[in-house]
TrEMBL record:
It holds the Pfam family Dynamin_M. Belongs to the TRAFAC class dynamin-like GTPase superfamily. Dynamin/Fzo/YdjA family. This is dynamin GTPase. It comes from Scylla paramamosain (Mud crab). SMART domains: DYNc, GED. It is found in: Cytoplasm, Cytosol; Mitochondrion outer membrane.
């Protein structure tokens, strides 16, 4: 079991070389207030005076002290190269491995120099430890850490938070679950005010790894003793309380040896505490610490083995991720290009080894764009969006030109359905844009192995991203053109013979046929060329319908009666004739003024449109319109006056306007015929729009896959080789990041240390542990 402590010392040496604190090794940590006697206890354990001494704060850096027991016949620690074959005891520092110290005064000076070098010449502290190893046949195997003493008030150039800094430093060491806490307190102070015991209780509430040391037993007030304290009656400590007597400052000045001090200590204990003398003193403390440390190492060793094995695996994986040193740069570049191409294509195809579970990416996201985003957007476009019945009716009437339509014109259907088909172009182009963005995004999420290579070679990463971006950018215009052409193809030819459209078209044709059949009633004549009574009724209805249509265009203004012309009085023969005259006179004279009408003579003289010539023409046209069956004889027509003399005026200021202005589109109730025509067009538009939408929804994803996705997959590697595999730029592309190089070096050193530690732990036999 004695071999356990040297093994732990070896492990400490191994990990000290790489500066790793991740492996928490068993060790003894000395904690106490300033000037409590911590350094004196360590010197008593070593048997040599080698630590800086004085008043105030002296220990300003942690000192990791390894005590190694060695005999004169021990060839394991002695060697001719270092000149230690014939030495009884010597010391070595980790920061100057090649130098062997035999004079312990020089050891003290080196500690002071190293402390001043890092922590300054005044009273500042530093957390970086000094590592010292002492070989002797007068010590027991121990690993002890001496820490700065707890203080309250900053002195010298110490910062204002010196108390917190020291406290944090102490907590860092004693929080290690594999450490034993050596809480040092002076006997001439109340144990209830011990800062060291208070801190030990914070991290070790059960007290299973805390040992208390009471110093300065010889400085207690007269009439008092430490029996209750040493027996644990004041504050119990599970691992025990051991009292020691240190050298005083006067003894140090007088150069009193440690051997003499130990003899005086034993005499004092026998004299003052005879019943407790065999369980107190520095020799008993050394043996107790050695025993506790060995048992503690034995308890921690299984977990230590597991920890070393696990860390070896972690650093092996980490080192593999950083890659090996580049030997053949051309081959390495081709391998990286091939890896990236494979990872990019696998991400699109969904065959990557590391499948993302937090979000859709790659090919799955492209599929979502095609069938969810793009599909839903097309489904939300209504076939008749933006079309009202008045729009459809206007298109129908515009398509017929000056001829009244007997049937619904096909041109109006084509114009309206093309207008709706154009609405499919924008979401189709947006689909191309989304797929392009996703393929650009795949560059950053195409495999962990490739990502490590990208971090290792940042310039190569930038160039790869640039090449892929340029390739995607070049493929975007052809893809957009193809998608635009798909819509243009549908607009170029409206296939009314489409199999899915014919059923609706034939149904509409049959409905129109039945309607026209119901309207077409044969006209019969009674005799000769004279129209029958029924034919006259039809004609009257047609005339009335025409008048109503004209009345609709004129508006809601009341129609005035026609003005009486001289020599041609207009007398209505019936009520209908009067209404007709009112309508026709409104075309000639315009609406009647609301104020008091002027006299007949004034009206004739001032009306620009009502010269006698125009009045005669208007009356004749009116009679011809109202009595079409009765011809107008030539002699009955009013005789136009002769042309005026030379210099006279033949016409008024502007020509006569017999038509109203073109009516603005107004909302009104449609007739039965107009409603049916609109329904027919709406039904045809819906049917054909659904066919085109289905075609676009199917062909756009195919076009995107062919012109963008598959083209990039097929040509990515050739593009990368074309732009990257250049002899003059290979060195630039494979210039490694300094951070990655440093990390790989640290990981390699740590892995080597862990492998060495695993070998050291493997040397322990079960017999060594009991």
């Amino acid at each position: 079991m004695e071999a356990l402590i040297p093994i732990i010392n070896k492990l400490q040496d191994v990990f000290n070389t790489v500066g790793a604190d991740s492996l928490q090794l068993p060790q003894i940590v000395v904690v106490g207030s300033q000037s409590a006697g911590k350094s004196s206890v360590l010197e008593s354990l070593v048997g040599r005076s080698f630590l800086p001494r004085g008043t105030g704060i002296v220990t300003r850096r942690p000192l990791v002290l390894q005590l190694v027991y060695t005999t004169s016949e021990d060839n394991q620690h002695r060697s001719a190269e270092t000149g230690t074959l014939d030495l009884e005891e010597w010391a070595q520092f980790l920061h100057i491995k090649d130098k062997v110290f035999t004079d312990f005064t020089e050891v003290r000076k080196e500690i002071e120099r190293e402390t001043s070098r890092v922590a300054g010449d005044n009273k500042g502290i530093c957390s970086e430890p000094i590592r010292l190893k002492i070989y002797s046949d007068k010590v027991v195997n121990l690993t002890v850490v001496d820490l700065p003493g707890l203080t309250k008030v900053p002195v010298g150039d110490q910062p204002e938070d010196i108390e917190l800094q020291i406290r944090d430093l102490l907590l860092y060491y004693i929080s290690n679950p594999n450490s034993i806490i050596l809480a040092v307190s002076s006997a001439n102070m109340d144990m209830a005010t011990s800062e060291s015991l208070k801190m030990a209780k914070e991290v070790d509430p059960d007290g299973r790894r805390t040992l208390a040391v009471i110093t300065k037993l010889d400085l207690m007030d007269a009439g008092t003793d430490a029996i209750d304290i040493l027996c644990g009656r004041v504050i119990p400590v599970k691992l025990g309380i051991i009292g020691v007597v240190n050298r005083s400052q006067q003894d140090i000045i007088d150069s009193k040896s440690i051997k003499e001090a130990l003899a005086d200590e034993a005499a004092f204990l026998q004299r003052r505490y005879p019943t407790l003398a065999n369980r107190n003193g520095t020799p008993y403390l050394a043996k107790t610490l050695n025993r506790l440390l060995m048992h503690h190492i034995r308890d921690c060793l299984p977990e230590l083995k597991t920890r070393v094995t696990m860390m070896m695996s972690q650093f092996q994986s980490l080192l593999s991720s950083y890659g090996d040193d580049v030997q053949d740069k051309a081959q390495t570049l081709l391998q990286i290009i091939t890896k990236f191409n494979a990872a990019y294509c696998q991400t699109i195809e969904g065959t990557a080894r590391n499948i993302e579970t937090t979000e859709l990416c790659g090919g799955a996201r492209i599929c979502y764009i095609f069938h969810e985003t793009f599909g839903r957007t097309l489904d939300c476009i209504h076939p008749l969006a933006g079309l009202t019945q008045m729009d459809i009716l206007t298109a129908i009437r515009n398509a017929t030109g000056p001829r009244p339509a007997l049937f619904v014109p096909e041109v109006s259907f084509e114009l309206l359905v093309k207008r709706q088909i154009r609405r499919l172009e924008e979401p189709s182009l947006r689909c191309v844009e989304l797929v392009h963005e996703e393929m650009q995004r795949i560059i950053q999420f195409c495999g962990t192995e490739v990502q490590q290579e990208m971090l290792r070679f940042p310039k190569l990463h930038e160039k790869i991203v640039d090449v892929v971006t340029q390739l995607l950018r070049r493929r975007l215009p052809p893809t957009n053109d193809m998608v635009e052409n798909l819509v243009a193809i549908e607009l170029a030819y409206i296939n009314t013979k489409h199999p899915d459209f014919q059923s609706n078209a034939s149904l509409v044709s049959s409905l129109l046929g039945e309607e026209e059949k119901a309207r077409s009633i044969p006209v019969r004549r009674s005799h000769g060329n004279a129209p029958s009574t029924y034919e006259q009724e039809i004609r009257e209805q047609s005339k009335t319908q025409s008048l109503q249509n004209i009345q609709r265009y004129v508006g809601d203004q009341p129609l005035p009666r026609p003005m009486a012309l001289e020599g041609h009085p207009s007398q209505p023969t019936s009520k209908d004739q009067a209404n007709t005259q009112n309508w026709f006179s409104s075309l000639i004279a315009g609406p009647r003024a609301e104020h008091t009408e002027p006299s007949k003579e004034q009206s004739h003289e001032n009306s620009p449109n009502m010269t006698p010539t125009h009045q005669l023409l208007a009356v004749s046209a009116y009679e011809a319109f109202t009595n079409p069956s009765e011809g107008v004889e030539a002699e009955k027509l009013p005789q136009l006056p002769p042309p005026p003399a030379e210099g006279g005026i033949l016409s008024p200021q502007k020509p006569v306007n017999l038509l109203p202005e073109v009516p603005m589109q107004q909302s009104r109730k449609l007739t039965e015929r107009e409603t049916k025509d609109c329904e027919v067009i709406e039904r045809l538009i819906k049917s054909y729009f659904y066919i085109v939408r289905k075609s676009i929804q199917d062909k756009v994803p195919k076009a995107v896959m062919h012109f963008l996705v598959n083209h990039v997959k097929d040509n990515l590697q050739s593009e990368l080789v074309k732009h990257l595999y250049r002899t003059d730029e290979i060195d630039t592309f494979l210039s490694e990041s300094p951070e990655i190089a440093q990390r790989r070096k640290e990981a390699a050193e740590m892995l080597k240390a862990l492998q060495h530690a695993n070998v050291i732990i493997g040397e322990i036999r079960e017999t060594h542990m009991w």
